[in-house]
C-alpha cells in the first residue's frame, strides 16, 4: 500500500506523538525513510518536539516536601485518624519525556534512495511538461487551423480546443492533478473521436494519439510521486486543503 506525501505531512504530528495504529505508523516510517522531501520535514518536526520536551523537563517541579504537605492537608479533612509519616502515601512522579513518543529519528535508506527519488522526480516532471506542451500546442493548433470544421460543428471543435489548452496549462502547473489529468485524458480521447471522420488520415492521427493517452494514464497513476508541482507546494503551505 502506497502513501502520499500529503498524507504523511497531515499525519506527521500524530506519528511523532505515537497516536497512530501500528500498521499506519509503519507505512509512514517506510515513506519517511525513502522520501527525499518528507524526511527533512520529519527531522525538523522531531527536533522541534524534542526541544520542547527537554525544555519542559528542565522546568521547576514540585518538591517532595511540598507534595507531602499538600497530600497531608487534603487527607486531614477526611474522616478517620490522621496518617503517620509511615502511612502517608508515596506520590509517584511520572518522568517527563525528553523526546517524542515515536522511535528515534529515522535515517534515510542510503544515498541510492535519494538519487532514485530525484531521478523519479525529474522523469515525472519531464513527462508532465512534455504532455502539457503537446496538449497546449494541439489545442492552439486546432483553434488556428480548424481541421474538418466544415463537416463538424465549429463551435464544438473550438470549445474542445479551448478546453484542451486550459487543461494543458493545469498539467504544466501540476494543479488539481486528480481531476485535471483525468479530464485531459477524456478530452483528448473525445477530440480524437470528434476528428475521426474529418481528417484525411484518421488512422495516422489515432496512432499518434495513442502514446499520449498512455502517457496521460501513467501520469495520473503516478501523480502522488510528482513532487515538483503546484499542488505539492500548496500541500506544504496548507496541507489540509489541497486537492491532489
Quick summary of this structure?
The chain has 244 residues and is mainly alpha-helical. It is 65% helix and 0% strand.
Report the end-to-end length measured between terminal Cα atoms. 18 Å
Shape: elongated
Helix count equals 10
Beta-strand content estimate: under 5%
Query: What is the oligomer described by this structure?
Result: single chain
**Structural class by helix and strand composition:** mainly alpha
In this structure, how is the largest beta sheet organized? none
Radius of gyration: 30 Å
Helix-strand pattern: HHHHHHHHHH
The residue-averaged pLDDT reads 75
The number of strands is 0
How would the blueprint of this fold be written?
Blueprint: H1 5-10, H2 12-16, H3 22-34, H4 38-57, H5 64-76, H6 110-144, H7 154-173, H8 177-194, H9 202-221, H10 230-237
Helix pairs in contact: 6-7, 6-9, 7-8, 8-9
